[in-house]
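User: I'm putting together a teaching handout on how multi-component assemblies are represented. Below are the sequence lines for each component of a complex, exactly as they appear in our records. Could you produce the 3D structure of the whole assembly as structure tokens, so the students can see both representations side by side? Please keep the chain order the same as the input.
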Amino acid sequence: MSDTKQRLLDGAMETLRKQGIAGVSARNIAGQAGVNQALIFYHFGSVDDLLVAACTAATGERVAAYRERFATVGSLRELLEVGRALHEEERDLGNVAVLAQMLAGAQHDEKLARVTAETLGMWTAEIESVLHRVLAGSPFAEMADVPGLAAAISASFVGLELCEGVDRPGAQRAMAALEQLGALLEVVEELGPVARRALRSKVSKAAARRG
Amino acid sequence: MSDTKQRLLDGAMETLRKQGIAGVSARNIAGQAGVNQALIFYHFGSVDDLLVAACTAATGERVAAYRERFATVGSLRELLEVGRALHEEERDLGNVAVLAQMLAGAQHDEKLARVTAETLGMWTAEIESVLHRVLAGSPFAEMADVPGLAAAISASFVGLELCEGVDRPGAQRAMAALEQLGALLEVVEELGPVARRALRSKVSKAAARRG
DNA sequence: GTCTATAGCTGGATAGAC
DNA sequence: GTCTATCCAGCTATAGAC
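Assistant: Of course. Below is the structure of the complete assembly, with chains in the same order as your input.
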């Protein structure tokens, strides 16, 4: 990978971070990367294609960096703790913001939508594998839709990041509330058989209502 | 309110809906509204100010329209059901998408950030008041941070909307998983005193860890 | 209040020198 | 591979006729 290509990939991410999807342009990215604007078209063909390439490359790196940390998680509470730490670090690095901006842009950009779905999928798959491990042998494992739960967690983090940008105290309170919910789930895991049966029945009924 | 001003307000929302925050421009909005582009500056001063005005006006209308429906909610499960119905309707109308685009734009636009925080706050306040009513007399009421929970629910809906744009099946599965979680909370509400004490203790410990 | 016209800028993208 | 120069479209915003 030539130095210029790498600088452009980094510059694209940095621009998305600092200026958002509305601020992405060939000139902004080239300025951030410290290279000539025309090189974007020489190396990547278009701004859109550079953005796609940059998102693909960046996410692979981040997920790999966190895989190790996810591997140490052994309970729901720990998952939420690691999740919060991860969210805070990634937020400070600006990476959750990048994903949020990608998602916003992807709503009206087919190519960006494809790569963003992949990016999101990488995180969700990581969360899902942790959930499977953490929920092994718990009453949830037999009734919960683990992939669905993983997707819900991903989505919530994205939403929290965006909300944090306009109301930081509110978002932090929301994160704390989700941790309370995690603590609650742990208690449910330790329920006796009667309550467990009632639980399963209720959840089944809810599933039936959805059809 | 003159017809032109109203057309511009509607046109701004419609543009945000159809083209996203990156597609917002005086020409796009005026085209959508079917009026001359220069009138934006005559009536609102700038595109940014029009956007702010439009968001303010539109949200007030939507929240008022749903207040009645929220008022009939009497349980957590019902809240999730109304929430899902509301989300589907608002999604089809494109209103959640508008909020998501506003949040994305607000990350790098001070004026938009202020009005978006207000918009988000209106929805969160509505959810919060329902939560207070629904949780009255339940074990949650004494320990849960209801405003935090309301903020978490708002944030999750925003995240789900964005994720739905790139992975609809995944987002729908996530929504279903959240409903399972709601069914679960209802069971917890019916716990006996022993489990309830254990629950409170766990949640307190989690709170202490957060410091 | 609404229009046309336009200034002045920034955008994507390309041609062609080196 | 990288640069300069440039085209043309689209952008915000204003001036001035009506």
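A couple of points students might notice: Chain A has one domain: 61-210. The radius of gyration of chain A is 20 Å.
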